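Format notes (please read before filing issues)

Several people have asked whether sequences and structure tokens are stored in separate files. They are not. Every record keeps both together, in the order shown below: the sequence lines, then the token lines. Line labels are part of the format and must not be stripped during preprocessing.
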Amino acid sequence: MTQQSIMHVQTNGDGVLSRRSFLRTAAVGAAGVGIFDALTLHAQELRRRQMSCVLLFMRGAPSQFETFDPKPGHANGGPTTAVQTAVAGVSIASAWTNVAREMSDISLIRSMNNREGEHQRATYLMHTGYIPAGGVRHPSIGSIVANEIAPRDFDLPHFVSVGNRFTTLGSGFLGMQVSPFVVGDPNQMPNNTQLPAEATQARFNRRLNLMQDLEQDFSESGGEARVRDHRAIVNTAASMVRSPRLQAFDLARETAATRDRYGRNTFGQGCLLARRLIETGVTFVEVELNGWDTHQNNFETTTRLSGQADAGFASLVRDLRERGRLDRTLIICMGEFGRTPRINANNGRDHYPRAFSVAMAGGGVRGGRVIGSTSAGGNDIANRPVGVADLFCTFCHALGIDPRKENQTPIGRPIRIADGGQHVRELF
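Then the structure lines:
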């Protein structure tokens, strides 16, 4: 066992396995049942704690200048002003007033960078930690987290994606058991989750058994992998429609005041749904807000979108804190890259992967911190650059996952969860 695989385990006051406890467990395992069994026990401990993660993905790449790294007074900053947050000396764009009030629980990385400036490739990279490669479909962060720490006997999907109108990056080579369940509209219950009137539970179970019998011949004649994936989908759906936890998807159970606070839009209600799902036991929820590709009318568009993102993000942090769940829930707010410092002729900003911002809260992240900075005009990273591999190691550190773990592709190729990098220690 390497020093790094041990050091990613953190301590907090909410039952999280400490480094000392884990070392003790590993020592017992080494002497008795072995290191592999000790790691298995550690994974079981993570599932017992019900660690979880919410990814707020700003598709299209939000401008760092109009979100978490404003440059008021500089020509590159444009008309965007800044607002002082609850943390002395930390300011963010003025459209984010609710997030500013919650900044004691939120930290910023202002020195993110990646090598991809095209939307599809950068989105893939920011979700998987890898650039697209022919022949390998890497799992997204949601599927990775579900695969590592989701409780195996849970009867709702481990990974739920909300408000995604595009193809969701899925489970890749990890299989359908941890693939995302997509909810297009959080204001509506998922479709086809009620049994037909004539189908009793007993009749429904007989139908499931018959289908498995019919698939068996195909499985034995070479279709085992396809049957396994199909059964994973069917079994997940069958468990879901029979689960009393299905009511977690029903936002009508929330007060009107709460729904108003999150924002009466798809993203805001998606954040509220994320809170309900996490509290019910879902391991990973992604909520998407699309439209940040502001090559034109950057300032008008980002102000409108920021209002939606600000209310949902801040309310999620506040509610999880007040309900005692924030320490066990990592919240990530990010896009695929940033926008250019130079304002173009269409009053917009173009693609800029060299420097952008990510916000994080919960999951052991110490709030009120700013990691890294950009130059006066935002053209370059001034200090403490953070790459995508570092970011993935940080996610893993917060959730108690070993970033060096190797998962096997169907052809036996080992691929690590994070391709290099180190977690951002200053956040913890």
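For reference, the curators noted about this record: The longest strand covers residues 52-59. Residues 201-241 form the longest helix (41 residues).
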